[in-house]
Amino acid sequence: MKYLHSSFLLLILHLPSSALTPFPYLYEMHHKFSPPHLPLPTKPMNMSTWMSHLPLHTPLNTLSIPGTHDTMAYRANRLPKFTTTQTGTLHQQLHAGVRFIDIRARHYRNTFEMHHGVVYLGTNFTFVVRTLHAFLTGPGSSEVVLMRLKDEQHAQRNTRTFVQTLEWYIDVHEDTVEMLTDLLWFPGDTSRRLPLLGEARGRVVVLRDYDAEGATYELGLPYTDEKRIKIQDHYQLYTYLDVIKKKWDLIINFWREWVSFFNSILDASVPTTNPQDLPLLVNYLSGASLFCVPRNVATNEAWGINNRVQFFLRTAWETAWDAAFPAWREEFVELRGETLGVVVWDFINTRAARLVVSFNFRGVEGWDWSEVGFWTAGERWEFKEWN
Ligand SMILES: *[C@@H]1O[C@H](CO)[C@@H](O)[C@H](O)[C@H]1NC(C)=O
Ligand SMILES: *[C@@H]1O[C@H](CO)[C@@H](O)[C@H](O)[C@H]1NC(C)=O
Asked: Which domains does the chain possess?
């Protein structure tokens, strides 16, 4: 099969691009075969600007994107254990390559305060906007950030709705109005498609996880539209065994199901679907329970999810996989160098982010993918909790 569709793609490359309408970017969208937009950098790739090496017409849902669950829950020293989900700050996460963030706002006194459930995270929406603006109008101007914006915890002491307060931040509030004008991506129509990379460079694509009833304009895309976004976010675990068995199976099965689906469409000899109409895949690795705080689930040395997923993805790259790990053979075949979608981590570190990003550059000539997943001395925040 792989052999067959490779020859087909070679054939396509020799057709004039007009033969490929209505999907003129078809032959480039499957990034295994895409020429990079800019020359490849000296290694290792700088994770602040990894999207700068991709073609402008890349549909965002065909990429492998590192993301963080509960992005702002990182002030480790001041938060209870069950609340903390990250070690790196938002700034650090962005520079490590994270391009999907999970921003949870409690609507309180007509403003947005950052919350994880009942716990106030000590910061507000203005801070998030400021950090994104500094990144996307500065070093990260080639990048796109997907932002899930979630209405979290019960609203209190407000005189308006969540969406009205959001529009106040966008149109009125003097601390944010100019920054948000630079930053936000507005869809030009009601197709509810994710933009192409080139349409949203330097911008934030809001994924609306709140009630947008009464909004005066269309902003970003709905997070809960199942046709557009496929999500695995089962986080309620009960025992350690649940982590090993249940959560792990959910993660792997989600990839198996959707990666096959994706590739059956992207590789079909007569493409019937515009790749932009395929869903965005969002696979949450996070989980927790009363006796099993997020840090344990993610980083426990023996059975933590992060080690397993990293090991799994690393091994998926390697050629000796079938001899070494016969039991995982099938999964590896399906995952090799394919679209992972958004991979949403608790306690992400630079190595994990780099590993996910590396899936976008597999097969690009001149790029030695085996180096991509490793820690490098240039990156100063490598968490010691797990490898
Ligand atoms: C956000 O937090 C900053 C710093 O604590 C504060 O000065 C500002 O007033 C807050 N903004 C809003 C809209 O609550
Ligand atoms: C990566 O690129 C950014 C933006 O150009 C730059 O500020 C940063 O120092 C670079 N990082 C490394 C490790 O070279």
From this structure: 1-58+240-365 (no CATH), 69-225 (3.20.20.190)
